[in-house]
Here is the input.
Amino acid sequence: MSEYLEMPPLIDVHVHCRTPGQEEKEDFTTAAQAALAGGVITILDMPNNKKLIDSLERLEEKKEMARKTAVCDMGFYLGTLGDPDQNFAEAEPEVFGVKIYLGETTGGFIIRDPYKLEQYVFRPWDFAKPILAHVEGDTLATALLLAEKYDRQIHICHVSLASEVDQIRRAKMKRGDKITAEVTPHHLCLSKLRSPHPYGQMKPPLSAFSDMHVLWEAVRDGTIDIIATDHAPHTKAEKLGNQPPSGVTGLETMLPLLLMAERAGEISLERIKEMTHYNPMRIFNIPEQPNSYVLVDQDVDWKIQGEKLQTKPHLTPFEGETMMDQVKEVVLRGKTVYRRAEYPTLSFFQKPGSGKVLPFSA
Here is the structure.
């Protein structure tokens, strides 16, 4: 007899749905189905699409597509290249924060000029919503310094190195209420010593075992606030090509991996709930969805197989890993929206367009 664990539904604050413009990689429906299959009811989608989502007009076009096709709840971020003419105030009510890229990423929407970064991002973003920072190397120190100078809320994305944890920990000692950080399951669970494979190529890259140890410590002591997937799908042809792009999937594997880590003593069940539900909801002011929960089968022996995933490219860096916990059912606002049966009999009870598109103030 299977034993079901009831969990609060997951909220993933770092997802790349690829719509509009790159629907061959993923679209709102497939991303949302992957989310539900992983116990995630709300995803916040990043702005680095084929064209950067840096205006209210582009944002509204994107949100309208989500209204027609999403099957889970979705929110969005604004992007910026430090354009002096960008109108933050116009788009701010419709987003959960503004995203800055200070390191290489899909789309190449990087702010390289420190003057633009300060004068046209940190200075004018005078809102009670975070600046989300993709940082690598020295750019973390720059982002933390500017956030302190202008007293801005800042969220550090996909922390991967012990040196970054140290900087974040010291910064939190000075202004902890204004600094938050996230880590991905792949940076917690995979080492750079693993055999190189394009399915596991991402930005920032995998780190050393010593970094992974520090990341887990930061998860336990609260230096890192959120676990998010940075779900970033690419097609199989791209990944197996001569120059495979960076980015991996993760929506369907996050919860099983974290529950395996709980079995191994790396993290408590309560901490998983905090980092995947309560902290994302609090930090990003995401509205509570009543009568919503996830049931997890804790008596199952299964292997992660890309071909059986809902994400469009059917790829995963965790191919072949054996899990013991599997999402059985997801209930959203009192309605069963997903129930797992023997593959390929997976039941989604949501029609495209039935997911809510969330404004910050909803």
User: Anything to note?
Assistant: The chain has one domain: 4-348. Residues 25 and 198 are 15 Å apart (CA to CA). Residues 4-348 form a domain with the TIM Barrel fold (CATH 3.20.20.140). The first strand starts at residue 4 and ends at 7.
